[in-house]
Amino acid sequence: MLDAVLLIGGLAVWLFGLFDCARTEQESVRNLPKWAWLLIIIFFGSLGAIAWLIVGRPKTVGVTRRRPSKMIPPDDNPEFLKKL
Fold first, then answer.
1. CA separation for the pair 49, 43 (Å, rounded)
2. pTM score of the predicted model
3. Domain for residue 14, yes or no?
4. Any domain includes 28
5. How many angstroms separate the Cα of 50 from the Cα of each of 33, 53, 62?
6. pLDDT of amino acid 13
7. What are the b/e assignments for 37-76, b being 16+ CB within 10 Å?
8. Residue 62 pLDDT exceeds 60
9. Could you tell me how far CA 55 lies from the centroid of its own chain?
């Protein structure tokens, strides 16, 4: 039973690391090129995925949240006035 849990957990970590690396933009990958991280994850399995999560994954993951901006009437909005 414990073997099955470890196998499923390792597979889940491996798949998460693989898909996370594949979806990350090339410019935000740290320490190695994206293709190298993908090869490490594929060949080293869960250990490669853990290495990706610790060393290669970008520090700023996710969508940055912006505060809602104030509504500006069209006659006070410089961008709108430029379009006229």
1. 10
2. 0.65
3. yes
4. yes
5. 17, 5, 19
6. 94
7. bbebbeeebbebbbbbeeebbeeeeeeeeeeeeeeeeeee
8. no
9. 13
- Residue 54 in contact with residue 30, Cβ under 8 Å? no
Give CA angle at 20 (40, 47), nearest 5°: 35
| Average pLDDT of span 65-72 | 67
Name the residue type at position 25: E
Whether 68 is covered by a domain: the verdict is no
The closest alpha carbon to 20, from 64, 50, 63, 65, belongs to: 50
Contact present, 29 and 58 (Cβ < 8 Å): yes
70 part of a folded domain? no
The residue that leads in pLDDT, 63 or 46, is: 46
- Which residue range is the domain that position 28 belongs to? 2-56
37 and 29 Cβ atoms separated by less than 8 Å: yes
Number of domains in the chain: 1
